[in-house]
Amino acid sequence: MIATIKGFLSFKSAVDVVVDVNGVGYRIFVPLSTFYELPEVGRPVTLTIHTHVKEDAFHLFGFHTSEEKQVFQMLISVSGIGPKLALSVLSGISAGELMEAVSSGNLARLTGIPGIGRKTAERMVVELKDKMRKLVPERAAAQDYREDRIKEDAFSALVNLGYRSSAVKSAVDEVVRDAPSATLEGLLKKALKILGRNP
């Protein structure tokens, strides 16, 4: 089975792409979440792959992250959900949001996804709730680690600019409190504004 494909992007659309690997073009179906992360045509690209084999077909489904692939594979294990519907689901909601909705049994959020009716949403919750609940803490831990690293990098950069460490800590904490998902660049800009007000 093909696990990853690395080559040059020779075609892309909202539903599929073609990746050229040493002169061989592989057609790969992708969700919108992956489409938005694709480079320009002609640029190098790497996709993690799910290989779907049927008696009359051999299809490749590609994803930007291993998390998307993992969620896709869980979705197609649910009765009544095939690869095309699973791609549609991931085009209508992020993998992280889907895991949280399923693990919390949020049927309203699930039925808001195009193509998902109440019965299918209920099957998703029944069959995947425990599996996805295990993934949510792992994802949260990874996010917490990332946010801690951004805070540390911002603190170090601002102290190196000559600001007092106590003032920097206060400014960084204020920004994180108001914008917990801020990037390092965004955190630095906002913290500098605060420090400028309180020299």
Question: How would you portray this structure in words?
Answer:
The chain has 199 residues and is an alpha+beta fold. Among the domains are: 1-64, OB fold (Dihydrolipoamide Acetyltransferase, E2P) (Beta Barrel); 142-197, Helicase, Ruva Protein, domain 3. The protein is built from 8 helices and 5 strands. The protein has helices spanning 32-35, 66-75, 83-92, 95-103, 107-111, 118-160, 165-178, 184-197; strands at residues 4-12, 16-21, 24-29, 44-54, 57-63. A 5-stranded mixed β-barrel has the order 1-2-3-5-4. Helix 4 (95-103) packs across helix 6, helix 6 crosses helix 8 and helix 7 (165-178) crosses helix 8 (184-197). The radius of gyration is 21 Å and the shape is flat. The model has no long low-confidence stretch (mean pLDDT 85).
Describe the structure concisely:
It contains eight helices and five strands.
Question: Can you give keywords for this protein?
Answer:
199 residues; alpha+beta; OB fold (Dihydrolipoamide Acetyltransferase, E2P); Helicase, Ruva Protein, domain 3; five-stranded mixed beta barrel; 8 helices; 5 strands; 55% helix; flat
